[in-house]
Amino acid sequence: MGKGTKPEAKLSQWDALSLESLKTHGWTDDELINRVQTGNLPKDDSKFKFDYAGLATLAAEQALTFTQAVRDGYQIKFNTIRGIHSWILIVFGQEAELALEPGAEAVIASLSEEEASRLESVLSFGWTLNLQENDASAAEGKQLYQIVPVQG
């Protein structure tokens, strides 16, 4: 998948978070797909308390979409600011900053170019990544990004 291209599979924000939670177990794509399809899933003790039932339903009712999402990536149908914050925590293990002032909402995260590209590929329509200039963390191979709603 090239930079700027969006995957064909579209997932709800909750399904995307559930999938990313399962990916942290280090299973192969085939093993993850098989575990979801057979219901052989762990109990989630994270603060999110995923039960994975929605993901199992998706895998049963839309097998192609689910398989594409696991193998080729996905785009989230509709993001919320807190959902983006949670996605960054689950996928990159980073507690991003939340700015919740009306009219200036943003998620602020220090990301590598690869992480920024991955996040950009999953964001729903209406969200964008803005690179922050003069950032001190650039020396660590990461740069500060603001994930903000697109201003119409």
Describe this structure in words.
The protein is built from 6 helices and 6 strands. With 152 residues, it is α+β, with helices and mostly antiparallel strands. It has a 4-stranded antiparallel beta sheet. A hairpin with a 6-residue loop joins strand 3 (97-99) and strand 4 (106-111). The two termini are 28 Å apart.
Summarize it.
The chain contains 6 helices and 6 strands, in the order βααααβαββαββ. With 152 residues, it is of the alpha+beta class.
In the sheet with the most strands, the strands line up as: 3-4-6-5
Report the uncertain regions.
Answer: none
How many runs of DSSP E, i.e. beta strands? 6
The overall average pLDDT, rounded, is: 91
Q: Report the oligomer.
A: single chain
What's the tally of helices?
Answer: 6
End-to-end Cα distance, whole Å, is 28 Å
Fraction of residues in helix: 40-55%
Judged by helices, strands and strand pairing, the structural class is alpha+beta
Shape: globular
What is the string of helix and strand elements?
Answer: EHHHHEHEEHEE
Rg from alpha-carbon coordinates: 16 Å
Report the major sheet.
4 strands, antiparallel
- Residues in β-strands, percent: 15-25%
What key phrases describe this protein's structure?
alpha+beta, globular, 6 helices, single chain, four-stranded antiparallel sheet, 152 residues, 6 strands
What is the element layout, followed by pairings?
Blueprint: E1 10-11, H1 13-23, H2 29-38, H3 53-61, H4 63-72, E2 75-76, H5 81-92, E3 97-99, E4 106-111, H6 113-122, E5 127-131, E6 143-149
Parallel strand pairs: 1-2
Antiparallel strand pairs: 3-4, 4-6, 5-6
Helix pairs in contact: 1-5, 2-3, 3-4
